[in-house]
């Protein structure tokens, strides 16, 4: 991962590599495999993309997937952050909840799909639930870790300056101190949640959706369209991550530089 | 305002194996208002413990501490502290750090920024109001910490080896500035240090503690006019006296060290 974008000449290298992969892929698809069901070529994919733009439902798919994703990630933040805060702040609650969470956490999010259907039916909420299960733990664990590692000196300095009540200490001292860790958790959750999206839309919760359409075109054996949706899923995921990383760096770099002990 | 009376103070910590480590034992001490007192002692003699109890951050196992006749039971806005470690909030700018206590007190933004700006000027850092602590040198950070403690207008200022981590030159400069600030603001200052030189330069009185368990061994009044010349004969006399004192049996622990 090249965080700083690298030098200009180095960025050209990356572009050249992508181009080389495309050429190689085209060559293999056109001259070796010669079957667009097994391996659609980049040209097939491009043609398919244009026709999907004209006749397809890309905007609706995009909107529906964002809706599922927002439900899941939103619920993960709404539950993961407060639970992480109370567990990180209060040792008793930590001891109480930790075993439960440690048992639930390793269950793969996709294993929850049957219960997502039983509990929520074939609804947007059902897809959101699967994404929620995938993204809540990174948010929770990182919030917890951030709160556990608030330096004692900050809390004591706060107390000496009249910040005494637990609520104020959390709001003015612990939360800002833990924020970089919380943000890192949200970033991880975004990635995991996005990965759960395709599976969350696989069982027919909606007529649209990037994941839903991927399965739809697979059933029609239109593998070129499948590749279009794969690439879109990848690019949108990348976009989320880039926006998030940019935001985190802008927000925290200025005060994390040369870390204060 | 700013009279501290410490009576029969003790403090012990429970070790992991269950035994009790006595940090301070039957310590009596009176600090008068507007006095600058340095508490001197070897590491582990309970200097920091003493300061934390005056601050109300730790509770004594016996004895009591009174500020102007009122017993100290917890952190108190009349008492400000500057820690040895860097304690500025890294997510706040310099000015917002200094204004933090005023913000907690519910003072409107405009007024608290004005007050905080005044104290930043006092420590000579007005032009760094918008910087983040990570952008400042160690000496500057401790200056901001002093401004932050003073902004709440406490009657007592506690300082726990605040210049201990700084290089000698910066340290001398900050000692000098502290005296100027003290003369302007007239706080009672309790300054912890293990440096004899620092104590003789700053103090009205030096309180020498015994090694653990800490107790007052001797109190020395430094009746030298300020500014004091670190290389002068009078300065050297006091230094030698204090250094000798530290090595005397009476300032060593009665029971095992």
Secondary-structure class of chain B = alpha/beta
CATH fold topology of the largest domain in chain A: MetI-like fold
| Gap between N and C termini of chain A | 28 Å
Strand composition percent of chain B? 15-25%
Helix content of chain B: 25-40%
General shape of chain B: globular
Question: What integer value in Å does the Rg of chain A equal?
Answer: 23 Å
Number of domains of chain B: 2
Helix content of chain A: over 70%
Q: Catalogue the unreliable spans of chain A.
A: none
| Uncertain residue segments of chain B | none
Helix count of chain A equals 10
Backbone shape of chain A: globular
Brief rundown of the structure:
The complex is a heterodimer of chains A (261) and B (257). With 261 residues, chain A is mainly α.
Which structural traits does this protein have?
heterodimer, A: 261 residues, mainly alpha, MetI-like fold, 79% helix, globular, B: 257 residues, alpha/beta, Rossmann fold, 2 domains, six-stranded mixed sheet, four-stranded antiparallel sheet
What are the SSEs and their pairings?
The complex is a heterodimer of chains A (261) and B (257).
Chain A lengths: L7 H26 L8 H14 L2 H32 L1 H14 L8 H8 L3 H25 L3 H9 L5 H35 L9 H10 L3 H34 L5
Chain B lengths: L3 E11 L5 E12 L4 E5 L6 H9 L6 E6 L2 E2 L7 E4 L11 H5 L1 H5 L4 H14 L15 H13 L5 E5 L7 H18 L2 E6 L2 H7 L2 E5 L6 E6 L11 H15 L10
Parallel strand pairs in B: 3-8, 3-9, 6-7, 7-8
Antiparallel strand pairs in B: 1-2, 1-4, 4-5, 9-10
Helix pairs in contact in B: 4-5, 7-8
What does the model show?
The complex is a heterodimer of chains A (261) and B (257). By secondary structure, chain A is mainly alpha-helical. Chain A has two domains: 1-34; 40-256, MetI-like fold. Chain A has helices spanning 8-33, 42-55, 58-89, 91-104, 113-120, 124-148, 152-160, 166-200, 210-219, 223-256. With 257 residues, chain B is of the alpha/beta class. Chain B folds into two domains: 4-78 and 155-251, P-loop containing nucleotide triphosphate hydrolases (Rossmann fold); 87-153, no CATH class. Chain B has eight helices and ten strands. In chain B, the strands form two sheets. In chain B, strands 6-7-8-3-9-10 form a six-stranded mixed β-sheet, sandwiched between helices. Chain B has a four-stranded antiparallel β-sheet with strand order 2-1-4-5, covered by helices on one side. Chain B starts with a strand and ends in a 10-residue tail after the last helix. The chains are: A mainly alpha (261), B alpha/beta (257). Chain A binds chain B through residues 153-154, 156-164, 168, 172-173, 176-177, 179, 254-261, and chain B through 55, 57, 74-75, 77, 79-81, 83, 85-92, 100-101, 104-105, 132-135, 148-149, 152.
